[in-house]
Amino acid sequence: MKYGTFVPIKRAPTENLLLAALSAEDRRRLLGDCVASDLRLDETLSYSDDRIRHVYFPIDGFISLITPGIGRAQLEIGLVGNEGMLGVPLLLGINVSPLRALVQGAGHAWRIDAAHFLRVIESHATIRVALNRYLYVFLAQLMQTATCTRFHLVEARLARWLLMTRDRANSSQFHITHEFLAYMLGVRRVGVTSAASALQRRNLIRYRRGDIAILDVRGLERTACSCYAIDKKIYGRVLGKGRRSRQNAGRESGAIRLAAQIAGAISC
Ligand SMILES: [Zn+2]
Hints:
alpha+beta; four-stranded antiparallel β-sheet; 10 strands; globular; disordered C terminus; binds zinc ion
């Protein structure tokens, strides 16, 4: 099945926030066996029920997590960008993923062999504890998505999705089709057309032949359902900058060096 295309028009090289939150020593342990990997648009990194062979820490691309199903019975229930990681079942000792992982924003990621990842988290509690905090955030977001899909209006859900995507793409401009948006939101195309037109009439977005530009972030935040703010609040509380800065005072030089490495797209 073709999902459509999604191409951030501009990207800002950055770092993976989970890795940046680790101490320099723990980061070296975890990345000791890593590869700088391209995330190619429309690439399926793993299908549901596949054995997990690699863990991905996105740097400047992002990945949709999609429930298994046929045709329209598929639904995106999560997005993983540089705030997270792909491969969380390993943190629970499970080596199979229940979801399909599809690249929706081309970019780069650190890729770690699953066996190395398991060895490191089993022998280094500080890394395991740090990543378990992300697991909590991830599960909270899945639960929020279930509520969102059941109770919230398409227009508000579309606004939420555009903001989530903007955060992960580091861009306010995307190329995306109605068909793809319909899959992401689990609604018919006509529903997406109506919601996108409403946002455009209010000058919150511009949508032309698949090119979306977010014109008014604050206005879109006011339009989005409460799920967007709840997700951000949970992330901030569990993994946010304030917490990281308190824990990692003095460690930032390592994070900055890592960011420089990433920007240079070098191998580790
Ligand atoms: Zn919602």
